[in-house]
Amino acid sequence: MIGYDEALAIIQTAAQRLPAQRLAPERGLVLAADVISGEDLPPFDNSAMDGFALRVGEAGVAAGSEFDVAGAQAAGDAQVTATQGAASTGAWEIMTGARIPDGLDAVVPVEQTEVLMRAADDRPLRIRVLTNVPQGQHVRLHGEDVGRGVCVLAAGTRLEAPQLMLPAALGVSEVTARRQPRVALLNTGRELVDDPAQPLASGEIRNSNGPYLAARIADAGATLVWRETVGDDADAFLAALERALAAGADVVLSTGAVSMGRYDFVPDALRRLGASFHFHKVRIRPGKPLLFATLPGGQLFFGLPGNPVSGAVGLRFFVEPALRAMTGLPPERPLRAPLAAPYRKRHALRFHLKGRLAVDAEGRLRAQVLHGQESFRIAPLAQGNTWIVIDEAAQDLAEGALVNVYGLGHLLGLQLDGCEA
Ligand SMILES: Nc1nc2c(c(=O)[nH]1)N[C@H]1C(S)=C(S)[C@@H](COP(=O)(O)OP(=O)(O)OC[C@H]3O[C@@H](n4cnc5c(N)ncnc54)[C@H](O)[C@@H]3O)O[C@H]1N2
Ligand code: MOO
Predict the structure, then answer these.
(1) Distance 269 CA to ligand 1 centre (A)
(2) 27, 100, 365, 390: which is deepest, by most CB within 10 A?
(3) Which domains, and CATH codes, for the chain?
């Protein structure tokens, strides 16, 4: 049986990067090349205020100075040049975001002016400024936010809403990126019932892994292209696998039938198919019987154990690193947090514990191991906001000992909202 680090290295080698493509920027893509700005942002000098644009020169102008109003400029108006006469003495009425007329170099907000004369249509004709106006005041210079030729998003960045604003502002219609991996999910077990309204017959249980893993696959930045529940039958399983691959899956996940029981057919079915096995069983808890293989078509296959928490751990710590490698995201690094209470670990396995990161009365983070760590107990999952990971070699840990903590998903980060002392 191999340890987790070895398993992770195997996954990172086997998970080939998806091809880089030219694609319209959209949420979920991971950049495979830097995005270089081809435009200035802002694209032209413009006003940060509704008011009057002036030519004030290096010295600025003093409160009390008066100006004739030579014109008006609103957002969307094309470039204008303040006339020579107006440039020296005139003001231009200007709106927020409007191009600064060429030759002018400061803006005074309307509320810091007094209108001395108006036209019949209410246009201001002459103003007095009520404050000193330094050169450059309230002028947003072209390229001040982003200059042309600058790298605005680096290769390896995942596009989320904050990373979509820049391409939109800069007229970037295509980026070089990797799409989201496509994942299929096959839940095995003749005991499984999918319809929540169906009463359970003797020996049946409800399929809880299916909805959980489907939601987590989406959180993990992958697209679920196929989901099916199959009985404990290798032929039915292989037929479902064929449908999953026909749906375009890059990665197939199964749950259950991967351990030592007489109906644990997944390894044999994969052998029949000609899959190449990378490993089966890892020194972890829960989730030890996890199986990882490459299918004849090059797709990755993860056989997750059926116990619900084992499947959750398999997705979080085995499948998610593969998704990262496929899209070109760098490997994750855990954060460290102190244990809220002593923890005794009696087995030489790497433990993945349902945990809660909470803040104590002094505002310090504390990692609390939740009650009910067995792999069939899902109630604590609903209270958890973190995975606490304890190395294989660790044994007795004192209160305050630093442990590795991971967010519930590799893209979710640590979420502390709602925590109590
Ligand atoms: N003799 C041994 N028995 C077991 C070993 C072992 O080493 N030797 N390992 C145990 C460990 S650890 C795990 S984990 C489980 C894994 O078993 P399988 O992957 O073969 O899973 P199943 O037997 O099919 O199911 C296990 C358990 O989970 C329930 N289950 C399955 N699918 C779902 C689902 N979609 N939703 C909710 N619950 C599900 C299933 O009914 C079983 O109770 O093996 C141990 N045994
Ligand atoms: O490791 Mo199995 O993962 O639950 O009990």
Answers:
(1) 17
(2) 100
(3) 4-18+179-327 (3.40.980.10), 22-42+144-178 (3.90.105.10), 46-140 (2.170.190.11), 335-406 (2.40.340.10)
